[in-house]
Write a structure and sequence with these properties.
heterodimer, A: about 500 residues, mainly alpha, 20 helices, about 0% strand, B: about 140 residues, 5 helices
Chain lengths: ~500, ~140
């Protein structure tokens, strides 16, 4: 049944040239943004989100999915060519990618990364197509206590893996949640923390926050230290050899499976998926392998895993309405802005859109393969654009993108304020991803907490009396305990 | 520098959280599920975590490099936003983009003029022709 729906979704997407064009544009923009060190797939999605408003929801969402997939792949280009991972997810690719580049095999390395990204993304998308509807069916049985426990679990997982300090992760997530309380009370309808400002009645818009935290902050950080790239020779071919593909085929598939499952854990993200696959490769290759010196498998494993993780991260976002990482938080925001509420009900009420979306994710992988193999030479030159021109242009796009949300100068101020907040937080090591997830999950969390309390007449035991919410609450506690134990161990080792 | 900056940020967060927590009382409807619950939960957690972070031994145990450039960029952007309604986007936007490129170290005057004017013109055309919501034109309102 699912395969029939997917075919139908595929027909919907392929038969609409505009939707196809949006996927292609999204992938190209994503590869470009991902390849630029310092700019992540999150930044790309945040910058392009305002430009999806005037279009059909499917077109807009698929363009952002294209940016997500392209962005994760694009990070490998600068990791291989410049020894500077464009995104954190490409850090593991650099270990073997740059040594290959030094040997004069940059083209071969990029070709391998491209094919591995395609395999990983496709395997991930197929697994997502099978798993997400099942998870959504399970989610249909959820009530307010389960949803509150789920948001708590998602936040706990994200906080647990977001940085060195649990305290700072919780601090950032709580700040994000507090921001969502500005504006009308979602249940009683009274105004909170608006200080008489009309612009705050509807709350702080998500897009200016995103653009500020991930766009303006990067601009301010780059203002301190611009990156200078070495010049590279042109005219290289970016295709892997047939022997390479045969040699790495099982590594690609195994890493893709690892990637999709790691990616589907809220908070784990593409970078952890890439390192998990690389660690597994290291273990399976044994101690005497030449990993780290330009081994093709060392490129294939992280690239297959991080692209599979993009699909994995979409599973909890679409089926339960809980984003897996910062990029899926942006995608969740995009769906909400387009009038949808991701989660179990989304699957029953928007089945056509869901399967068209799944088909679009699979198509995005094909586009990625074609774009990757044909335009890599161009991207390799583009990423060396003078940063003194590129960064001010990004700042301008941030401001115009924020303005275009409601055509309001107020949103530009919000983006600037959050840019300054992000810059300061980066300086004092307060992670930004939990803050964003706090903003995205805050309203959902508050609504379900209060509904649960209304049902139970204020008795907090409601969260422990129902098996699913009990399991999720215990999962959240386990994630926090794991993080505390790990922190204690690492501090003991340092001493 | 690292310690001072970090402690300042944490103290500001503590004060802010205490204020937010106190204000949340105004949103209560007398029930345990009122509008005060979530703001108190969030601000209480911010207060507790910022206080713990303030007294953690590793707080401030690192160097923070700060240069003037980010502050100049923020100042320029703020000036752009403040001047836009009165002076107008057509003049303020190219000046702002050009000045930012100058701050970032670009000294090619022709490139600065071309990019600053071109970029702001493209954005103006897109916002006014496609979205029908151009940024404030200020004194240029009579011409555009």
């Amino acid at each position: 049944m699912e395969s029939l729906n997917i075919v139908q979704g595929m027909i919907t997407v392929v038969s609409d040239p505009i939707t196809l064009l949006f996927i292609v544009l999204g992938v190209i923009a994503g590869v470009f943004v991902g390849a630029l060190p310092g700019l992540t797939a999150t930044t790309g999605c945040a910058l392009l989100l305002p430009f999806t408003f005037g279009h059909e929801p499917l077109q807009g969402i698929l363009m952002l999915v294209g940016v997500f997939c392209g962005g994760i792949y694009g990070g490998s280009l600068s990791a291989i060519l410049l020894r500077t991972p464009g995104t954190p997810a490409a850090a593991a690719t650099m270990i073997d990618g740059f040594p290959m580049s030094e040997k004069g095999e940059a083209g071969r390395a990029i070709g391998l990364a491209t094919v591995a990204s395609f395999v990983g993304g496709t395997v991930g998308a197929l697994i997502m197509t099978m798993l997400a509807p099942q998870l959504a069916k399970l989610g249909l049985a959820f009530g307010p206590p389960e949803f509150f426990a789920l948001t708590l679990f998602g936040l706990a997982m994200i906080v647990a893996v977001s940085g060195d300090s649990l305290v700072r992760g919780v601090l950032a997530a709580s700040i994000g949640m507090w921001i969502t309380t500005i504006g009308f009370d979602p249940i009683a309808g009274s105004a909170r923390y608006t200080f008489g400002m009309r612009n705050l009645l509807g709350g702080v818009e998500l897009i200016p926050i995103l653009v500020g935290l991930f766009g303006v902050t990067q601009v301010l950080l780059r203002a301190e230290k611009l990156l200078v790239f070495p010049k590279r020779k042109s005219g290289e071919r970016y295709l892997p050899t047939f022997a390479d593909l045969v040699l790495t085929r099982w590594t690609a598939v195994k890493s893709a499976v690892i990637g999709v499952f790691v990616g589907s854990v809220p908070g784990a993200g593409c970078d952890i998926a890439a390192f998990a696959a690389y660690s597994e490769l290291k273990r399976s290759e044994g101690g005497d392998s030449d990993l780290g010196t330009g081994n093709p498998k060392g490129i294939v494993a992280p690239e297959a895993a991080n692209n599979a993780a993009t699909a994995g991260a979409l599973i909890p976002m679409l089926s339960l309405g809980v984003p897996g990482d910062a990029v899926t938080a942006v995608l969740l925001g995009a769906l909400t802005i387009h009038g949808f509420e991701p989660g179990p009900v989304f699957f029953t009420s928007n089945l056509d859109l869901i399967y068209a979306l799944f088909a679009g994710v699979i198509l995005a992988q094909v586009v990625l393969l074609v774009v990757g193999l044909s335009l890599t030479g161009l991207f390799a030159r583009l990423i060396q654009i003078d940063q003194r021109i590129m960064i001010p242009m990004i700042l301008f796009l941030c401001m115009i993108g924020s303005y275009s949300v409601r055509y309001s100068l107020f949103d530009m101020y919000v983006a600037l304020i959050f840019g300054c907040v992000g810059f300061l937080f980066e300086k004092v090591r307060i992670p930004l991803s939990p803050l964003l997830l706090g903003v995205v999950l805050g309203t959902l969390s508050e609504q379900n907490l209060r509904r649960s309390l209304i049902i139970s007449h204020g008795d907090l035991m409601i969260f422990l009396q129902r098996p699913v919410s009990l399991a999720l609450t215990l999962g959240a506690i386990a994630a926090i305990v794991f993080m505390l134990v790990r922190a204690r161990r690492s501090s003991a080792m340092t001493e | 520098m690292g310690a001072l900056l970090e402690k300042t940020v944490l103290v500001i967060l503590i004060l802010l959280a205490a204020t937010v927590f106190h204000m949340a009382g105004d949103f209560s409807d007398g029930t345990p599920s009122g509008g005060h619950v979530f703001p108190r939960l969030a601000s209480g957690t911010v207060f507790a975590m910022a206080t713990i972070a303030l007294f953690q031994p590793q707080t401030g145990g690192y160097e923070v490099e700060m240069t003037l450039k980010p502050f100049v960029v923020v100042g320029l952007t703020l000036a752009f936003l403040l001047l836009m309604p009165s002076v107008g986007y057509p003049l303020v936007a190219p000046l702002w983009i050009g000045a930012t490129m100058w701050i970032f170290g670009l000294r090619n005057f022709a490139a600065i003029v071309l990019i600053a004017c071109g970029l702001s013109a493209i954005a103006w055309i897109l916002l006014s022709r496609l979205a029908f919501a151009p940024p404030p034109a200020g004194v240029f309102d009579v011409f555009l």
